[in-house]
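Reopening this ticket.

The earlier resolution said the output was attached, but the attachment link was broken on my side. Pasting everything inline this time so it's all in one place.
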Amino acid sequence: MRVLEEYMECMKKGDNIGLADLFNDKGVLHDTSFLKINADILHLEGKMAIEMMFHHKFGFNGGPFNITNILYKSHDNVRYFIEYGDVVIPVTAYISEVDTEGKIMRLDIYPL
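Inline output:
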């Protein structure tokens, strides 16, 4: 399974530990889709920050976010719909860099 597919599975299951394990210790997750719900951009640096933030995100959300209509455009790009409460946002996620072990160095998520 490709790392992007694993990322999507962890998001759908609400697995913050599995999600963080996909990232390099210094990996970056940058998500601007939160702007669509009038929230701050999510910018996380480091595996520990990713694990902790998603532990809280999944906890406050009552579990994983509802994700639908997943369309893999390539090995490093996926489009999907994600629900933040009552709001459904179409997004695209790009992995721009992986390390030699296949861990994510940078993942950017943008609203469409």
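Reporter confirms the inline version is readable. DSSP finds three helices and six strands in the chain. Residues 67 and 82 are 5 Å apart (CA to CA).
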